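Final report, closing paragraph on structural work. Over the funding period we assembled a curated collection of sequence-structure pairs, and we close with a single example.
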Amino acid sequence: MRRLRACLGAAAAVGLTAAGATALVAGNASGATTALSNRWYAAAPYLMPLDNDPPDPAAVMDATGLKAFQLAFVLAPNGGGCSPTWGGTAPVSSDTAVQSVVDTVRAKGGDVSISVGGYGGTKLGQTCADPSATAAAYQQVITKYGLHAIDFDLEEPEYENTAAIRNEIGAAKILQQNNPGLYVSVTTAGTADGTGWFGKQMLLEAKSQGFTPNNFSIMPFDGGFNGAASQTSALTNFNAILQSTFGWDQATAYAHEGFSGMNGRSDTGEVFTQADFQTVLDYATSHNMDRFTFWSLNRDRPCTPVDNGGRTSGTCSSVAQNPWDFAKYSVRFAGATPPSTTPTPTPTPTPTPTPAGCKTAWSPSAVYTAGDEASYNHHNWKAKWWTQNEMPSATDWGPWQDEGAC
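Its predicted structure, as stored:
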């Protein structure tokens, strides 16, 4: 599903505002920090801090009024084990790069949530022995960064593994109990019917463990969706699933429901514009939903040279926009008003550079590790992590980064 690429009752959710949650204080590597309201964590868009040309979060905050970011993704080590890493390669324990991003955001009065899982790589729920061990690994992340919020992004292929999902849901429950006030979201695949069979099994696992997060969010994209109407229909259907699974009434189900969209052109060629985001935002707020987020801030800018609609990129949206247009919908969901800005002119296309020489041709039998290069389909590609027999393609969630024509 992704990616170009990671308890409130009804009355409580209705009352959430940008200033409305009780603050808590937690220690972390860079000192104590005060939590934002839950509504800001619910609105935090995804940001890859180490890949896909990460934007400067301080500049985004100044331009949009955004206060919270969803940093993605924490995974198990590529070589196996039960310790948290960024993207399978950078141990959380020795991290300074992401910590610098966190410090930058907090210095401007904002905060971060961290997303675990996502589409690619190996998840800790797959490699840790049980829920307790999985929770202990994630607790290292919470303690390292002094987190007030965490997102469990449970999707392919992990959510097809019953034991892994039991570990993830069990870990989420333990973290929720051991970190009072922790905002916990669970994000999974969206379908026209709400969510698929594996998503429903995940909900049943949560029910069996007696676990209720702040929200269960679906990602209505990469599944034959066509604009906002298909997305709001899926959210309505997912609400019915939450009602039937947990025995909630409609309002309570909406208070535990979230939306995680994709801005611009999706992996499968669907297109979601600013107008689509406004329609879904109106739906989410009018139904008192708990969460409205999107994948991703790395993509929340126009493509240069201008290529609106012709490709899917991890670093731009492929739709006509000004930088950070989509982030402003998150700001509105949080209950704040984005600063007014003068629209920027359409960038002047830059000359197409002379193609570089092609690297050694990609081979399905070869093993590639992070930084290795190969050519395929007249483009050079660089491996993001260990991979074998995964064809190079321009998708965020895949192991390859497109370095351009050759």
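The mean pLDDT is 88. Residues 228-246 form the longest helix (19 residues). We thank the funder for supporting this effort.
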